[in-house]
Design a protein that fits this description.
Layout lengths: L1 H25 L13 H4 L3 H15 L7 H4 L3 H9 L11
């Protein structure tokens, strides 16, 4: 049960980072948050935005995040769930 709460916490943290990167990219007003269940296309992300979000995730997690993953896991929640399932980078490798 401890593992479940740890995964949930990790997913939430990753989703928060993704949402912040998307909000910044879309120029949302402070306090505005993108819908975490909406697809990235529905949120209005274009190809440059997808690259920026993947880059923000890579920087936060210290692992490569191919842009294809944003299409395979097309919402903030879905991508966060996938990223949380990855083996964490070694402490010295983290950006």
């Amino acid at each position: 049960m401890n593992t479940e709460s740890t995964v949930t916490r990790k997913e939430r943290e990753i989703a928060d980072r993704l949402a912040a990167a998307i909000a910044e990219d879309l120029g949302l007003a402070e306090g505005e948050h993108p819908d975490r269940r909406a697809t990235f296309v529905d949120l209005g992300l274009d190809s440059a935005s997808v690259v920026a979000v993947a880059g923000a995730a890579e920087e936060h997690l210290g692992v490569e995040v191919p842009t294809e993953w944003l299409f395979d896991h097309p919402s903030i929640d879905a991508l966060a769930r996938h990223l949380a399932s990855l083996k964490p980078a070694a402490e010295g490798e983290r950006a």
